[in-house]
Amino acid sequence: MLGVLPGIIGVIQRRRRSKLIHRCRRPLIGRFLIVDALRMKFRELKLRKDPDCPVCGTHPTVTQLIDYEQFAVSGLPHRSRHR
């Protein structure tokens, strides 16, 4: 069951991308797709934009990507790779 699930999600994502490129129908912007693979059911939730969101809100404070490697190790005590 889990072996085919990434393929199903990938096909859905590819189809959504094609719709965006060809401007067909309405995109999934503002909606959240939930896939219940056990019951083979799909649900859509409508999402409202949060005006206080630090990324996409009215006054965004996060305006660029971070250096993930630096972020991941900052503030952590130094550990040896060999235990």
Structure description:
The protein is an alpha+beta fold and 83 residues long. It has helices at 5-21, 68-73, and strands at residues 31-36, 41-46. A hairpin with a 4-residue loop joins strand 1 and strand 2. The two termini are 37 Å apart.
Any idea what the radius of gyration is?
A: 19 Å
- Strand percentage lies at 5-15%
What is the mean pLDDT? Answer: 81
Overall shape: it is: extended
Q: Can you count the beta strands?
A: 2
Low-pLDDT windows of residues: none
Helix content bin? 25-40%
Main attributes of the structure:
83 residues; alpha+beta; 2 helices; 2 strands; 28% helix
Describe the secondary structure blueprint for this structure.
Layout: H1 5-21, E1 31-36, E2 41-46, H2 68-73
Antiparallel strand pairs: 1-2
What's the short story on this structure?
The protein is an alpha+beta fold and 83 residues long.
